[in-house]
Specification:
This protein is of the alpha/beta class. The protein folds into two domains: about 1-80 and about 160-225, Rossmann fold (3-Layer(aba) Sandwich); about 90-155, no CATH class. It has nine helices and twelve strands. The chain has helices at about 45-50, 75-80, 95-100, 110-125, 140-155, 170-185, 200-205, 220-225, 230-235, and strands at about 5-15, 20-30, 35, 60-65, 65-70, 80-85, 160-165, 190-195, 205-210, 215-220, 240-245, 250-255. A six-stranded mixed β-sheet has the order 6-7-8-3-9-10, sandwiched between helices. Strands 2-1-4-5 form a four-stranded antiparallel β-sheet, covered by helices on one side. The radius of gyration is 18 Å and the shape is globular. The chain binds adenosine-5'-diphosphate (ADP) and magnesium ion. The site of magnesium ion has 4 residues, from helix 1. Adenosine-5'-diphosphate binds near residues 20 and 38.
Length: about 260
């Protein structure tokens, strides 16, 4: 098994009396897609920001390549990991092409030709080439999400942290995003993605971490973790899990309460 590129050790985050994340141990390894699931308010976004080094933990530490992430200079961090936040608030009237180009910012030593290839590849992978001259604020929510995804791809980092990358995407683009992530892990990237849609996790994640109340209640192989008993308890709603009729993965079916 490859060593973790990113590791949370007893990581916690509190604001005043509120405990948002509590004692989390988690590894993100080269070649895997780790799905992070759990109900609203479980602490998933807070954890992902700490894994990215955007937010310093109140307790414990995050290690990147074995070194405390807080010790990296911003540029060294930006070439190692990319973060797709849950919501990107970008009001300025940038063109799509320029937004994706922002992902190239950390690659100071790259030539303009390198940058152009990266940006074109990222736009193709996000299926946004036809939108390149459009102004970002005029795009639909799903189109904006794909532009933000392409910006993260253009950063070309070995670690990708994505907070609900597929939340506003149609079925085809949800599958497209996950297929792109699989291509990247095939080349050794490590991916951790908060996935709102349990079936997206079921179909595409190698491992799943289930968060609830700031803690990881279970982490392991997708088919072992996505169980009716665990999901029904964590989501406080009856959920059935059956074998997928067409694919080699579980199928998660929320029932009526
Ligand atoms: P998730 O991404 O799993 O939905 P978040 O990490 O965004 O959850 O938030 C975890 C919990 O922390 C939520 O219940 C949220 O309301 C709470 N929270 C976020 N910011 C603050 C804050 N400044 N003070 C108190 N609670 C907060
Ligand atoms: Mg969130």
């Amino acid at each position: 098994m490859s060593p973790p590129l990113l590791e949370a050790r007893r990581v916690g985050y509190r604001i005043g009396d509120a405990v948002l994340v509590d004692g989390v141990d988690l590894e993100v390894r080269s070649g895997e897609i780790l799905g992070i699931v759990g109900p609203n308010g479980a602490g998933k976004s807070t954890l992902v920001r700490m894994l990215a080094g955007e937010t310093a933990p109140s307790e414990g530490q995050v290690l990147l390549d074995g070194e405390p992430i807080g010790g990296y200079r911003p540029h060294d961090l930006a070439v190692r990991r990319a973060l797709l936040p849950q919501s990107t608030v970008l009001q300025f009237a940038f063109r799509v092409l320029d937004v994706v180009m922002m992902g190239r910012y950390p690659h100071r030593e790259a030539t303009p030709a390198d940058d152009a290839i990266s940006v074109e590849t990222a736009m193709e992978r996000g299926d946004i080439g036809h939108l390149r001259e459009r102004l970002y604020p005029t795009l639909s929510g799903g189109e904006q999400a794909r532009v933000s995804f392409a910006r993260v791809l253009a950063q070309e980092t070995p670690i990708l942290l994505l907070d609900e990358p597929s939340a506003s995407l149609d079925v085809r683009h949800q599958e497209l995003v996950m297929a792109v992530l699989r291509t990247l892990t095939g080349s050794g990237a490590a991916v951790a993605a908060v996935l709102h849609d349990l079936n997206l996790a079921a179909r595409h994640a190698d491992r799943v971490a289930v968060m609830s109340g700031g803690r990881i209640v279970e982490v392991g192989l997708t088919a072992e973790v996505l169980r009716s008993d665990l999901l029904s308890e964590v989501y406080r709603h009856p959920v059935a899990v059956v074998p997928h009729p067409h694919l080699d993965c579980p199928l998660v079916l929320p029932l009526r309460s």
